[in-house]
Amino acid sequence: MIKALRFLQLILLMHIIMSTDCRGFPIEDNRQIESTTKIYMQNSSNFHINDTIWIKGFRSSKNFDTNVKDSVIQNYAPFTNIGISKLITNNSFNLIGAVNKFEIIATQMQSEDFCVNRSIRTQSSINNSNHQFKYEIGLIPKETGDFVFSFDDKFLFQNVDKRQNILTNYPVNDSFKMVWEVCVQTIPRRDISNNDVFIKVN
């Protein structure tokens, strides 16, 4: 009987230890769902060298906290990664990194992309008067060609002409429609995404 009681005490003690963190408080799943960033960009016509392509985005500085079931203010400025690639004609791949083909007007951070010249990482600013984070990114092309700007799924485009039919001019011998040049002994590839915006620079 004593052994059984000690066994139950041990189980209870293990349960308490496993349900607390190192400070002795219950572990909480602090999950905040960020608001969607609305993106505005004029892309209804072709650009030219030295034009400034403006990408502007806004989102609420309030996130939804699933623990408290309410909105809370995000206390740090978020950042975003934007892929920048140039389309090329080649049987093996049809995209190369093209960050170096543009002059960038934005507050930039160190890119986390292991592929050179394939993406930029920019930080937003905050407008305290209306509780919004704001992105304002200028891209000035330095050469002609067809390019693609790739965003992640946190962005909602506001009447942006994505011109995704441009990709059909660059077929590649692969099961995927978008294949990048070899990068660190790998070949990045994927299909076209709803967040890919194609542009022409004449």
Concise summary:
The chain has 202 residues and is mostly beta strands. It is 8% helix and 38% strand.
Provide the number of structural domains.
Answer: 1
Report how far apart the termini are: 87 Å
Helix content: under 10%
Give the count of helical stretches.
1
Average pLDDT, all residues: 84
Number of DSSP E strands: 17
Q: Provide the β-strand percentage band.
A: 35-45%
Residue ranges: pLDDT <50 for 5 or more in a row? 15-29
Radius of gyration: 24 Å
> Helix/strand/pairing class, anyone?
mainly beta
Outline:
globular
Give me the strand/helix succession. HEEEEEEEEEEEEEEEEE
Oligomer: single chain
Largest sheet, strands/sense/barrel: 6 strands, mixed
Give the helices and strands, then pairings.
Elements: H1 2-18, E1 32-33, E2 37-40, E3 53-60, E4 62-65, E5 70-73, E6 79-87, E7 95-97, E8 102-105, E9 108-109, E10 119-123, E11 125-127, E12 132-141, E13 145-150, E14 155-157, E15 178-179, E16 189-190, E17 196-201
Task: Describe the model.
With 202 residues, the protein is mainly beta. The protein has one domain (29-201). Helix content is 8%, strand content 38%. It is built from 1 helix and 17 strands. The protein has one helix spanning 2-18; strands at residues 32-33, 37-40, 53-60, 62-65, 70-73, 79-87, 95-97, 102-105, 108-109, 119-123, 125-127, 132-141, 145-150, 155-157, 178-179, 189-190, 196-201. Strands 2, 3, 8, 11, 12 and 14 form a 6-stranded mixed beta sheet that branches. The protein is globular, with a radius of gyration of 24 Å. The model is unreliable at 15-29 (pLDDT under 50).
